[in-house]
Every structure is written in C-alpha cells, then in structure tokens.
Amino acid sequence: MKKRIIILTGFVLLLSTCLLSFTSEYKPWFENDPFADSLRIVYSQPSSQWPAPHVDAGVNWEELGRLPDGPLKNPTGQQQPVIDLGKMLFFDPRLSGSGQISCASCHVPDLSWTDGRERAVGHDHQTGQRNTPTIFNIWYAKQLFWDGRANSLEDQVFGPVNSEIEMHSDMALVPSKIGQISGYSPLFKAAFGDDHVTADRIAEAIAMFERTVVSRKADFDRFLEGKKEAMSDAALRGLHLFRTKARCMNCHNGPLLTDNEFHNIGLTYYGREYEDLGQYNITRKAEDIGKFKTPSLRDVIRTRPWMHNGLFDNIEGVMNMYNAGMPQPKRKPNQENDPLFPKTDTLLQKLNLTKNEIQDLIAYLNSITAEPWKMRQPVLPK
Questions:
Q1: In Å, what is the CA distance from 126 to each residue of 43, 122, 266?
Q2: pLDDT band at residue 241, thresholds of 50, 70 and 90?
Q3: 325 near 251, Cβ under 8 Å?
C-alpha cells in the first residue's frame, strides 16, 4: 500500500510538471480544471520548488512571498508616543498654508491611502503633474516619490509641505505655527522629552506613523499559509502566468511585488504637452530619461487610477498595454542624434497573452488586494 502511494504521488508531480510546460495552451477556462488543480499542488509546495520564473539575465529578483510584518508591528514604549504624534500631524491641515490641506487629503485611508484621482489636487484646486501613490508598506521603499528625489521618509515629508501647488507652506515656518497650538505641547513632550517643536521632529513623527501603514493579508497570503482553497483557479493560473509567460517578475518581485528600482515604460510624452522625464529631472543623467519608480502591486486593484500620470482607470487597459509591450517610440528625422530621446526598457516585450490569460492575471492581482484597515481621523489638538 505504501509503495502504491509513493508511485501515485510521483505520477501526480510528473503530470503537474508536464502540464506546466504547456502554459500557453491550457484548456478549459473554468473552475476546477485539471491544469489549475496541478498548479494548486505545485504552488502549495515551498517556493524553492516552484517552477523557475521567466526573468531576464542580469535582473536581481526575489521570490514572491507572504506579506511581511512592518518594522513597527510591535512598537516600543519610546516609539508609540512618536507614532501617536505623527498620526495627529498627518491628519492636521494646519501644516498647510491655507489650513485646509493635510497629508490625509491626498492619502485617504478609505481609498487605500490614495485619493482616487488621476493626478493630485492641492492648494487652490491646482492639479499636479503626477498621480498620488499609496503609502501602504512605504517603509519598504528605498527612495520616495515617482522620481526618487527623497532618500528617506523623513526627507519626503518636506516635499509636499513646501510645494507651491500641494500644501503651499514653508516647513521653516510650520514649527512656530504648530508650537502655538497648546494641545500639541504634551504630545511633543511625550514623544521627545520636551515640548520643543522643530521641522525635523515633525518630519520624524510623520515618517514614524507612515511606517505603521501596512496592508492586510490577502487571499494570496492565506494560500501561502496553507489554506489551499484561498485562491480561485483563475487566480492560480494568473499567479503562474505572472511568474512565467507575462514576465511580471522582472520588475514586480519579492513579497511586496516591487524591485524598488526605476524603469522607463514608454510614457514620457517626449516633446509633447504632457512631457515628464521622471528621474532624469533629478539626476540629469541621460540613462534616467523617463524612468519612474516601480510601485508595489500590493492592493493594486484598490489604488486606481494607475501609472505615474494616472493614465489608466481600467485594469484591462493596463493589461492590454503591457501585453502590447508598452509604447516603443520611434525617432523622427529631427531626433536621429538626440541624446535624450527616451528608450523604453528592454524588459518590456510583446507578450501575446490571450483574453482569458489577461483575465487570469487580473484574478491574481485581486488575490493580492485586500480591504484596508479602518482608520478614523483623530480629534486634533487645540
């Protein structure tokens, strides 16, 4: 009997391996199909035994995995008062010049810490150039903003406060303004030992609070924890496509599905009205033309619209563009010798995904999306 079980187990694994070699032709497209059943077996194994992903040579990648704990899951007694202060400041519109715009005006908890807009709207209803990214799991980012111009969360805080079209304020003046609010005195004293208000302390507190904003577990995490039915057949097919034929792992890898790098995906609008050259605007290096930060795909279905310019409000549109290999601009006669002409990253290639495969990929994206934690706006100090 034991020998039969061993033989049967070996046959199932062999069948699974064979089926995985025919990913572009598997049929039928319905729940509980044999191919999805084989994927459920294969991806229930440790990730070290998963099929090799389709990743180009030279790409540093990390295997997908469960949602990691944030660095402040269990804050110390010294950290908690700083977090509490940072939460107050994050929601306080008095940091802005008008007294009407807070960090939470664009990073809304109920909208998965985005604003649902194509591009951010700030002071005097001015519209910015770029889409508001979520701050979910922002502790993991090495550089902040779409163009990477801040190297820490503390540095990032200064950006929107000082921006003419965002909060329209001056961080050099904010400490005096906040220091005049008597209700903040005990909060600063609890956080820093005295009630002295400085720009660096404001930035430190807000950054500390932002490090506590983490995603909830999604179906994919529950699947990896051993709940084999947590993911649908479509999501499992999508997971396999994500790692193989769709080539997503080249940029979106690791537990938070980002390589923390910058890429040109062909949306620079070079020489046109909405031109945005991304990281080049900061570094002035030709190789950085059109590069933008790779966003985490955690909770991606809830963070529409997508791309640095909010171009897409429909996830099918995003998938279709990637399937086509994204824009690959051609030089015009007057651009033949232009050293700044943008080049779409070679990692982006035509994929030849079918409509059903695209729907399966979307099912996987839904499996890494969860409802956000509820967070009420705090009663602000007076």
A1: 48, 5, 26
A2: very high
A3: no
